[in-house]
Amino acid sequence: MPTPESKGILVTRTADGNPMIGPTAYEVEDKEDLSTTDAGLRQVLLVAQRLVPAIDPCDIIAYFAGLRPAAGDDFVIRCEEMAPGFITVAGIQSPGLTAAPAIAKYVASLLEASGLTLMPKHRHCRERPRIIHLFSMPLSDARELISADPECGDIVCRCETVSLREVKQAVADGATTLDGVKFRTRAGAGRCHGSFCTCRVMQVLAEETGRSISAISKRGKGSELVVLDRTDGFA
What we know:
Layout: E1 10-13, E2 19-22, H1 38-51, E3 76-79, E4 87-90, H2 96-113, H3 139-148, E5 155-157, E6 162-163, H4 164-172, H5 178-185, H6 198-209
Helix pairs in contact: 4-5, 4-6
């Protein structure tokens, strides 16, 4: 059940259909503390197994933690008089995703009220083309897709059934890092956590962007996976 600190511990599914349990909620002082704890895991399992007894700790492949700023009982959305044109949007807790469209409209109205001229964006794309994922389609449809494009049958990530075509499309859509590809395709998000596909995804990123392997990173500068040693070899 919900508590004063959180919406409760749930057994749910992600948008891609993967089961997920949690969360816990603790107050922390360190703005960079993304650690998880054994105590937190035990608490989540205790509640989740009361809901679904078949949940097995051995099936858990990843633990996640996030930080959200709290600002009392309500959102903080305001124009800052000391910095004209600067809008503070803070303390957006659990309802933030649902409230995002309304928050955007309200912020736009604040900007307009402060003197900003708002011009309609005529080339605005209201709907993005649906991304094709092999793991989410019937086998018969997947076979037709592979017959039309062999790269759809070249499986880069076995855990999540991600094809070479999907990885290339992710790069074409703007992915420049391993995490960028993972967020768009789930390559690297499966049980082996990228042990099988990381090298291949790095190769595709390098080829499609014209960069060297040593320039490919997990999430941006400072998280490169391959470095050149003094003899110009790879490490």
